[in-house]
Amino acid sequence: MFSNTPMEELEGDLLEDYLGNYKKYGRTRANLYYLLDLLRLISLIPRSRRNTQKSKTMNNLFLFNLKYSFRSIKKHSVYQALNIASLTLGFTCFSLIYLFVFNHYQKDNFLENPEGIVRLNIIRDGNESMGIHSGIPYLLKKDIPEIERMSRMSSLVMEVSFTGNPDSFTEQVLSVEPDFMDIFQLETVLGEPFPKEPATVLLSESMAAKLFSSPQEALGKELTLTYNKKSRKKHVAGIFRDQPINSSYSPQIINQLGNYDRFSGLNGGLSVSLSAYFKLQKGTDRNALAQKIPENLKNYTDKESHLSNTYVFRTLNEIKNNPKISSGFIDSLDTQTVLIFKIVGLVILLLAVANYVNLTTALTLKRTHEVGIKHAMGATKHNLISQLLCESFIIGGISILLSGVFIAFLLPRIESYIGLQMQLTANMQTWLIVLSILALFVLVALASLYPAFLFSTTKFSQLLKGKSEVSPKSKLLRTSLMAMQFAISTFLIVGSLTFLKQLQFINKSHNLDHLSNVIIVSGKIGDKKRAIEHRLASLPEIERLSFASFAPGPVDYGRSGLGTDEFKESFGFYVIDEHFLDLMGLSIAEGHGFYTDDRNKPNHVLMNQAMVENVKEGHPLGKEFKLYGATQSKVIGIVENFPIGSLKSQIEPALYMQAALDEYLPGMIKKVAIQLKPENRVASIAKIESEWNKIFPEQPFQAEFMDDRIAKIYTDELKMGQLFGIFTGVAVVISCLGLVGLLTYLIQIKMKEIGIRKVLGASAGTLTKLLTLNIWKVLLLSSLISFPLSYHLLEDWLTSFVYRTEVSSELFILTILCFVLIVGLAVFWQIRNAIKINPTEVLRND
Amino acid sequence: MKRTGIGEFEELVLLTICVLENDAYALDIKEEVENRTNRRMNISAIHTTLYRMEDKGLLQSKLGEASQVRGGKRKRLFSVTAFGLKSLSEINETRSRLWKDIPSSILNALNT
């Protein structure tokens, strides 16, 4: 029972006692006593363990462990470097992502009652919008006691200039009512708390400092605000405090909202749509309140257009988490985007930790001799575990320090790249640093426990023989970790490929292959079209040019809409000339484009395919419509649908007419599309600029390439795509490091097998198969797991585009090929050495 | 009086070891106690008490030489430590002081 040396005296005593009893009482009673004694002695078992003799040399200590850890790290420097690299990558990515996520959640935490700040939105036919009849908020404020404050608001981007300074710039101007300052907690620093006089405005501190060097200077100065060609002079009546940097809104110029009370009657024919913000009492049920609104309005009107709508109060939080319902006044970030980043961050950390576990385990098995000798010298499990933990902490510490350096280096760059500032106070930063370091250390400790136990439980006798034990359990764990890494990597690769495919689709839809040499020059061209056309046409560098009221890309001159009884809904109309379709590479679906010879009539118009659907009766080709000017317009052709703005929205019905149709239309011409000859484009643009300056000395020369214009609509997608690409790279690198670790391990335990097989005449091919078959199986398995998942997730993402590509099978095949190539390289790198080995080297010891 | 935390049986065992002039092993102790008290003892009871007292610091032990008698197993020999002796004498003093103070009227009853 007590087979270990320390308790042998008990065994001896029991035996002696048994013999004595046997003589005295006979066999049966002696047996009985023996059994009873045994049972009672069970309580001494823990003691027998405790008293195990320990060698004093292995009894300490921290310093020993530390010294030894450094030695062993130095000895396996290549693997430890891999470890540090993958952990550093993982930690850095994770921390950066979570800093930004944390930052996102810190938004607006200075508000006293963020739930109380709401905007009234209206849902009409399933579409939610914030434009509300200006009378409704007014009546609600009057009737509902829970509404403490109300302000209607209109925000317009105006041109701002001031006397004594010829330059102007554009800025968002908010026109609001007095309660606005209270709702959004804006404090006055100087002067009036609100622009009471119509000809006054308030400025923020920073705006005042930007314009007039200091807030004190700014008070009483005069500004000119220009909107839609109407200029108004305004005096600065007061200065309000800048919002904290973690605010999701930062008004700069506040203007008084004009008197809209004469439009407030709900039954009047004329109405003005404004957005309206409210401050609700604490604890108000905003949903119940919103449901009562139609009932409230019944007292004032019986118009169906007011009563049949659903009204909702959207809190500040909802507005800033949903770009679809936000306005330019409140910054917003999609919750889905935040979620994606959160998941990606965690996944990368997981990859790094899994990798660490794998590599350390592999390394442990390389060190069996060392463990054996330590055991022989009397080291206990505890000693071995603490030594491995010590090493882990050193590795983890180095990684954390390195990632700290990287974060400090990268953070400002990323901030400027994604145009978002970190808004952390110094106090919070210290806390974050302390917390993250603690958390990461805990993580390292947890991650190293498994290899540590493996390290310590390996059987002593086998260790000295240099044999390492392969338990099925540990194999399963390693394989599943590997499978997880592969699955995540393949998902990220499929994601990146899908993104690239969608990008290609976007480029194709916008015809960008065709437009690589096209530049768009913007300006008020108007009736000087002939002059500039004449000058430009004589330049040999220009292949073709076309004048139009618009160019695909961001909307920079408000679109014009038109609607008559013959059409279902209003549509966009644009002025183009006869070369436009040709230059943009657009084809005619039916009929004919504008004629370039004398068959061309001013009343000829074109429409796109979406517009054909928009016609109430019959097919429009060849028909005449009363549209603009005195004459009937004749539809001579149907242009294929092409996107003007983002593919995220439906292509709208559009009508294209010629400038000659009406005297007002030439004024709409604001763009010249110029196709350059591919050689020496910079010089060509310089020449065009000098010509431009001769005709329009007062207008700055603004030219941009077509692809830049298109890229501007997809800024968010492109940035996200790049970030996603980076993360994919990181994940793949980490997985490869893990693979190298796994292979090292495999080769280590199969060294003898390889040797024997080589002696028996195995070829390099068979050996490779022997070593890698499992990896390919794991790869197959992880693909099976990750592909359906990625298909689902990516389809989900693509639905945010109205026009989109498909997640197709060739993407998955490409991913597999891509991954097989990467894995193959890693495998090749590792196996090369193993196969070259001389069998006598391995077999000599046995 | 300081509490020594020695139970009655423990005291008995301790005293027995003293009587056996230290370096006693469990079976010797068992026999000695049995002889002196006319009670049958279990060897396991002796063992647990010995180890418990060793933990308390009243006893110390060492392994003896191996012999042919008991299947080559060595004996663990127990001796009383200075602390053990001191504790014993404290108990003894307390008792004897109490004995001394018992009125003779009561003691007379014992003699008769």
TrEMBL record, chain A:
Compartmental location: Cell membrane
A single cellular component GO annotation: plasma membrane
GO MF annotation list: transmembrane transporter activity
Ranges for domain MacB-like periplasmic core: 81-294, 487-686
Bilayer disposition of the protein: Multi-pass membrane protein
Principal place of residence: membrane
TM region(s), chain numbering: 81-101, 339-363, 384-411, 431-455, 476-500, 723-749, 770-791, 811-829
Domain ABC3 transporter permease C-terminal stretches: 343-457, 726-839
Pfam families referenced in this protein's UniProt entry, alphabetically: FtsX (PF02687), MacB_PCD (PF12704)
Keywords linked to the UniProt accession: Cell membrane, Membrane, Transmembrane, Transmembrane helix
Listed InterPro entries: ABC3_permease_C, MacB_PCD, Macrolide_Exporter_MacB
Keyword check for Transmembrane: yes
UniProt-recorded name of the protein: MacB-like core domain-containing protein
Species name: Roseivirga pacifica
Automatic annotation (TrEMBL), chain B:
One Pfam family in the UniProt entry: PadR
Domain Transcription regulator PadR N-terminal, first and last residues per copy: 19-89
Protein name: Transcriptional regulator PadR-like family protein
